[in-house]
TrEMBL record:
This is Schlafen family member 13-like. Gene3D superfamilies: P-loop containing nucleotide triphosphate hydrolases, Schlafen, AAA domain. Residues 379-485 form the Schlafen GTPase-like domain. It comes from the Eukaryota. InterPro entries: P-loop_NTPase, Schlafen, Schlafen_AlbA_2_dom, Schlafen_AlbA_2_dom_sf, SLFN_GTPase-like. SUPFAM superfamilies: P-loop containing nucleoside triphosphate hydrolases.
Length: 817
């Protein structure tokens, strides 16, 4: 990886974007015809900067115009356009680059690169191929085909013996008479000046004279890497230097040179070529690329002459001529990629298996916060989306400014995407903050979110009280071209899709909320249960913690035909079901959740429910998890061997860190009959998480006297310094009495955080209750406070029940005592 800095203008940035300043260049077709060689080199520098911006999310290049008589109707110059066309082909130049002159500068607006044929844009890929008797560079648009073709050839050879693999990597025309003649000449190892050879050039043979070459070392360094790449990528071949390609006679080369010196020279070139032989991701052959060479002495009358012969085997993957001419911007510097870095980024990503199914028409994007209503969009005729936040900078892992009260990202048709920052007064520091936040948002939309249209994010400070825009000191700053305007509502939708990816990819309260929306999707396992067992009248659904039993139970209720038609659903506790004066004779279908925690002390609830549903040919499904049985009394369920059951093993309701914490407790559950323990052991082995949303799990040990104050401190930190609301949080104790004795209610009241019990829970208050009473419910964030259990053997069950209540963050507070 090599770095180079670019010229920075002392003036402030004109755009909230990547800006590169280039010193004077001549523009216009008439003037470009007369430029010097040094001036032409500037064109190469411009191409490098364009390539860097293409691969770094786009940006602007500002170039001082050298010729004072330049007019915009003169164009930029045919050679400049042709330089762009060379690496953008087959796409038209204007698809990725637009330019306009302003005052004494030429502004090049560069879009982010996107192509199904290449993940990066390269001025030169550094990969050569043989085509007949010519050498061709593999262009940008041919890279993916090249890689796929090579991988296909490797897959075809995987079952063959090693010897056969090596034979395949030798030239495809190895049985051709001409190639056999070339191999024989190579093996003989000597030649006569003027000797007539019986072979000429072909796909796998190249002849070069270099008889009169004065600087042979320079020419060999230029030519040999090209042919080693070309032959290696086309099945192999031989190059002879010192043979005239037209007459096929030996001319010799390196007159007067020492043979050992020539050998060292060629050996160094071959060794470097070996370092440029790379394997694709997933290559199973991993064959070593090892070109051979011979310095063949040519018998002559006066000074010594030689034929340099290099025999190149085919490579199972790819051999580069040199590092690609490919650039990126990183940390304020432009750097070129090495061949290995380039290949790593260029290879196709692994396909993602579709293992989730949406259970409804809801969008993955949560609704924006309610305070969005206070921000008015000036043009009511345009369509779009506005998303408000305390801090968009915090959402994308940037530093928040306390002077900024709130922010709104507005995307509407006919306008530039705009970040409105609401402040009490403007200042240069706040303008710089707004520009940096807008720039980082745009970069992440493109580089992380994969947004492929022309895009910018324009910053704007707004007075919080009046709603009036605060003017910047650069009111005459140039604007982006019209192509950056949001064209239609489809562009808005694409923008929002990319923004969703960005927010999911960065750890923040907002990504946590999006992650929870993901948890509301059905796994393939859950989908199978609801569809293949839809007509099953009586079923026991067993699921480990986090497998989404309650979600499936609710979906099953929605899918029952009678419920869909009548929209009637009655929710009762086990005690009410057994002791109510109502005989429930009108009930046809019964869905039981958390069945393992039912008891038969009020009567045989299972028998009653079964008889009710059988009388009307209704549905009777029981969802249960013996891992979470938090009592040792009889649960009233039939023996496991008598249950017609379906097992759920795929965890989707909890972050991976929480899942890991749960898994450590699974093997500790030891209470229950033998058949239940066997069932639990099997479940523990098969349970697995099906997503990569990490979440957070922390165990916090404090002195008992400081326990509740630490819990309050955590609650305050979550609600005051981030975008979590009280409705995202649950604080759970072993029992309700433990909470009442803790004094937490008084301390929450002091910090003005609303709280409620399970009976009165709502989206505006923290739930504070016991684990058992919160069973079957969830919150994004759960705080467990010094959990203990009686009898002791159900302790792991209670921990599991508590752990699985947390979707994204779990904080486990334990007393040191």
């Amino acid at each position: 990886m090599s770095f180079s800095t670019w010229h920075r203008s002392p003036a402030p940035k004109l755009f909230p974007d990547l800006e590169i300043h280039l010193s004077e260049m001549t523009f216009g077709e008439p003037a470009r015809r007369k430029v010097s060689e040094d001036e032409k080199k500037k064109n190469c520098e411009l191409q490098k900067y364009v390539c860097a911006l293409l691969n770094s999310g786009g940006g602007i290049i500002l170039v001082d115009i050298k010729n004072i008589d330049y007019e915009s109707d003169m164009g930029i110059g045919l050679d400049i356009e042709q330089g762009f066309r060379k690496f953008l082909d087959p796409s038209p130049v204007h698809e990725f680059i637009k330019w306009k002159s302003r005052n004494s500068k030429m502004l090049f607006f560069v879009k982010s690169w996107h192509s199904s044929n290449a993940h990066l844009c390269s001025i030169d890929t550094g990969i050569k191929q043989r085509s007949g008797t010519s050498v061709l560079s593999v262009p940008n648009y041919g890279i993916m085909d090249f890689i796929k073709k090579k991988q296909k050839e490797e897959d075809k050879d995987d079952d063959e013996e090693p010897l056969n693999k090596w034979q395949k990597l030798m030239p495809s025309c190895h049985d051709d008479e001409m190639y056999q003649e070339a191999c024989q000449f190579y093996e003989v190892g000597n030649a006569q000046l003027g000797q007539q050879l019986h072979f000429g050039e072909s796909v796998n043979i190249e002849l070069k004279s270099f008889q009169s070459e004065k600087n042979l070392q320079k020419r060999l360094k230029e030519v040999l890497p090209v042919y080693m790449s070309a032959f290696a990528n086309t099945g192999g071949g031989i190059i002879f230097i010192g043979v005239d390609d037209k007459t096929k006679t030996v001319t010799g080369c390196g007159a007067g040179m020492n043979c050992a010196e020539l050998e060292n020279m060629v050996r160094d070139i071959c060794e470097k070529s070996k370092t440029l032989a790379l394997h694709f991701k997933g290559c199973t052959q991993k064959l070593t690329f090892a070109p051979e060479f011979k310095i063949i002495s040519v018998s002559a009358h006066d000074k010594p002459l030689y034929v340099v012969a290099v025999k190149i085997s085919g490579c199972c993957c790819v051999v580069f001529e040199d590092d690609p001419n490919c650039w990126q911007v990183k940390n304020g510097k432009i750097f070129s990629l090495t061949a290995s870095e380039w290949l790593k980024e260029m290879q196709p990503s692994d396909t993602v298996e579709k293992t989730i199914t949406n259970i409804g028409p809801q969008s993955l994007m949560p609704r924006p916060e309610s305070d969005i209503r206070r921000y008015q969009i000036k043009n009511p005729e345009s369509e779009g989306v506005a998303m408000a936040s305390k801090s968009w900078a915090a959402k994308i892992s940037q530093t928040r400014k306390s002077e900024v009260i709130s922010e709104a990202l507005v995307m509407r048709t006919g306008s530039y995407p705009t970040l409105y920052c609401y402040v009490e007064r403007g200042s240069p520091e706040l303008w710089e903050y707004a520009r940096q936040t807008a720039f980082q948002l745009k970069q992440k939309l493109v580089n992380l979110g994969g947004y492929t249209e022309w895009v910018c994010v324009v910053p704007q400070l707004v007075h919080y009280e009046t709603g009036e825009n605060i003017e910047t000191e650069k009111s005459n700053a140039p604007k982006y071209p019209h192509s950056y305007l949001v064209e239609n509502i489809r562009a808005v939708e694409k923008f929002m899709q990319s923004l969703t990816i960005v927010l999911l990819s960065i750890s923040s309260p907002y990504s946590d909320k999006l992650g929870c929306e993901y948890f509301n999707l059905l796994t393939e396992e859950q989908f199978k249960l609801l569809n293949q067992y839809n007509n099953c009248k009586h079923l026991f659904v067993h699921g480990a913690p986090g497998t989404g039993k309650t979600l499936v139970a609710m979906e099953k209720i929605r899918r029952i035909e009678f419920m869909r038609r009548q929209k009637i659903c009655r929710c009762e506790t086990r005690v009410c079901f057994m002791e109510s004066y109502d005989n429930f004779s009108a009930v046809q279908h019964i869905i039981v959740d958390e069945g393992q925690n039912f008891r038969d002390e009020s009567g045989d609830w299972f028998k009653k429910a079964k008889e009710l549903t059988e009388q009307k040919e209704g549905t009777f499904w029981i969802f249960l998890d013996y891992f979470q049985q938090t009592h040792v009394k009889n649960n009233g369920l039939p023996p496991l061997s008598s249950q017609f059951k379906f097992d759920l093993h795929r965890v989707v309701r909890n972050g991976t860190e929480i899942f890991d914490a749960m898994k450590t407790q699974l093997c500790k559950v030891t209470n229950g009959p033998g058949e239940v323990l066997t069932h639990l052991s099997d479940m523990a082995k098969r349970v697995a998480v099906v997503h990569k949303i990490t979440g957070e799990y922390k165990r916090i040990q404090v002195k008992k006297e400081n326990l509740i104050s630490e819990v309050v401190k955590k609650v305050r930190g979550l609600t005051e310094n981030s975008e979590y609301s009280p409705g995202d949080i649950a604080v759970l104790f072993s029992t309700k009495e433990c909470f009442e004795e803790s004094g937490l209610d008084r301390m929450l009241w002091n910090i003005r955080v609303p709280y409620s019990s399970v009976e009165d829970m709502n989206e505006n208050s923290i739930v504070v209750d016991s684990i058992r009473r919160f069973s079957g419910l969830e919150r994004d964030i759960v705080l467990l406070v010094d959990i203990t259990a009686w009898p002791p053997q159900i302790m792991p069950n209670l921990w599991l029940c508590g752990y699985s209540r947390a979707r994204i963050k779990l904080f486990e507070f334990r007393s040191e005592n």
